[in-house]
Amino acid sequence: MLRTLQVSALALMLLNSNALAGETIDFWNTPQHGGNSFNRLPPSLDYFQALKGYGATWVRLSYDKWQPQQRDFLLGTADRYTGLMPADLATLKATLDRAQAAGLKVVVTPLSLPGMRWRQNNGDRFDDRLWQDKTYWDQSAQFWTDLARALKDHPAVAAYNLVNEPAPERQARLPEHASPAAMRTWYARHQQTARNLPAFYNQVIRAIRRVDSRTPIMVDAGWYAAADAFAYWPGLLDDTHVLYSVHMYEPYAATSAPNINRPIPYRYPGRVEFAGKQRLWNKARVASYLQVPVQWAEKHRLPVNRLVVGEFGCMRRLPDCRQYLEDVLSVLDETRLHWAFYSFREDTWDGMDYELGTAKVPWAYWEAIERRQPDPVPRRATGVFEPIRARLAARPASSAE
After folding, report:
1. From residue 250, how far is each of 107, 247, 275 by CA, in Å?
2. What does the entry list under GO cellular component (predicted)?
3. HSE-up of residue 40 (Cα within 13 Å, Cβ side)
4. What is the 8-class DSSP label of residue 273?
5. Which uninterrupted H or E stretch holds 106?
6. Is 143 within 8 Å of 134 (Cβ atoms)?
7. Can you list the domains of the chain with their CATH numbers?
8. Which residues lie closer than 8 Å to 205 by C-beta, 6 or more apart?
C-alpha cells in the first residue's frame, strides 16, 4: 500500500510539472547552481533529493557508465548508430522522472557519440573518428534527433549538452592552451574538415530543431571544454537558445589526482606548470583565466547568462583543495555564471566527492563497484565541501522554486 501511495505521489508531481512547463530557456535567465552526476548506477530519488536538499537547482547527468542494452548506452554501438536502444531509453526516462520528482532540472550529457566512444569505455584509447569523418557527423545528428524527439516533452530536461569535453584539436597539432593567434591559424587550416567543432554543432542543432524547437542546447568548448578554447570560434552558433560551457580544473597539474604522487606536489596558491611554463596560480590568475570566455561572450554580444561552467573541481585529498574551490566559486559569484561542481556522490571514483572529506574511502566502496552494488559509504557535509555547500544554500531567491 505504501509503495502504491509513493508511486501515485510521483505521478501527481510529474503531472503538475507538465502542466507548468514553459519555455525552458527562462530557467537560465538567472544564475543556476548544481552538480554533476557521472555515476555507474542510475541515480535514485534519494540521491536527487539529497542534491536538491543542499540547494542545487540542476544536475548535469551522464549515463555512459550505466549498464547498456548493447555495447554503448542508448547508441547500441558508437561504431555505427542505427537507432536508440529502447531499454536504455526507458532507464533514462525513469531517471529523469526521479530528478523531476525531487525538483531538479537536468542537462542530459552524453560522453560518447557515433565515432567518439568515451575513452574509459574504449580501453583507455582516445577515439578520434568523429573528427576525421563527417559520416559520423550525420550519425550524431540522427542520434540527437531521435533523443530530442523522445525527451522534448519531459519537464525535467533543461538542456541538451551535445557532447562532454570534445577534443577535435587533440590529434591535429594544436597544443592545449595555445595562444589565441595560434588557435585561429589552426582553425583556418581545418575549417573545411571534420575538425570544425562549431560547424559540427550547427549541423546537430539544425537536426534537433526539426523535432524540438524549444529545449536549450548546451555546447562545450574544444580541447576538453577548456575555458580558453572558444578563442578560435569565429562567432556564435546559428541558434539563439544555446548555452556555451567551459570546464575549470586549471591549473590541472595542481588540482588533479596525480599531484598527490609527485615527490614534491604542486601547491595552490603557488607556481605550477601550465602551458609549458611555470606560472603563479592564485585567485587573481583564476579570475583572469575565467575572464577569457566572458570576454569572448562580450565580443560577440552574448549575455553572461548564456555562459556556464559545466564542471569544476579538485582532488579532495589535496591540502589546498578547499582554498581552490573557494577561489573558483568567489570568481563565479562575481561573474554570475551558471555552474555545476564535479561531482556529487560519484559511485565509481571518489577523488572529487567532497562529502567524503580528505580521508581514503573504506574497502567497501571498491567492493560495491566490483559487485555492481549501490555505494554503501555514508556522506556528510565536510570542510572541503563547505565552499560549495555555502553557495548552494545561498542561491538567489529568483533561482528557487
Report:
1. 23, 9, 10
2. cell surface; extracellular region
3. 16
4. E
5. strand 105-108
6. no
7. 25-399 (3.20.20.80)
8. 162, 217, 237, 238, 239, 242
8 Å CB contact between 108 and 161: yes
- Whether omega before 396 lies within 30 degrees of 0, making that bond cis, reads no
Residue 68: DSSP 8-state:
P
- Cβ atoms of 383 and 357 within 8 Å: the answer is yes
Cell triple for 378? 555514508
Task: Look up residue 225 and give its amino acid.
Answer: A
- Report the distance separating Cα 15 and Cα 8, nearest Å: 10
Alpha-carbon span 346 to 40, nearest angstrom = 8
Q: How far apart are the first and last CA of the chain?
A: 30
Q: Long-range pairs for 258-264 at CB < 8 Å and ≥24 separation?
A: 259/315, 259/318, 260/315, 260/317, 260/318
**Cα(185)–Cα(201) distance, rounded to whole angstroms?**
20
Neighbours of 171 (CB within 10 A): 12
Of the candidates 310, 345, 278, 376, the one whose C-alpha atom is nearest the C-alpha of residue 28 is 310
Cβ pair 130, 136 in contact under 8 A: yes
Question: Tens-of-pLDDT digits for all 401 residues of the chain?
Answer: 433 334 444 444 444 443 333 358 999 999 999 999 999 999 999 999 999 999 999 999 999 999 999 999 999 999 999 999 999 999 999 999 999 999 999 999 999 999 999 999 999 999 999 999 999 999 999 999 999 999 999 999 999 999 999 999 999 999 999 999 999 999 999 999 999 999 999 999 999 999 999 999 999 999 999 999 999 999 999 999 999 999 999 999 999 999 999 999 999 999 999 999 999 999 999 999 999 999 999 999 999 999 999 999 999 999 999 999 999 999 999 999 999 999 999 999 999 999 999 999 999 999 999 999 999 999 999 999 999 999 999 965 444 44
Provide the whole-model pTM.
0.93
Q: How far apart are CA 256 and CA 247, in angstroms?
A: 13
Grid cell in block for residue 306: 548564456
| Residue 130: partners with Cβ closer than 8 Å, 6 or more residues away | 113, 114, 115, 116, 136, 137, 140, 168, 194, 200
Residue 313 DSSP one-character state: -
C-alpha gyration radius of the chain: 20
Instruction: DSSP letter for 47, please.
Output: H
Cell numbers placing 358:
580528505
Specify the pairing of strand 105-108 against strand 157-161: parallel
Q: Is-cis flag, bond preceding 245, omega within 30?
A: no
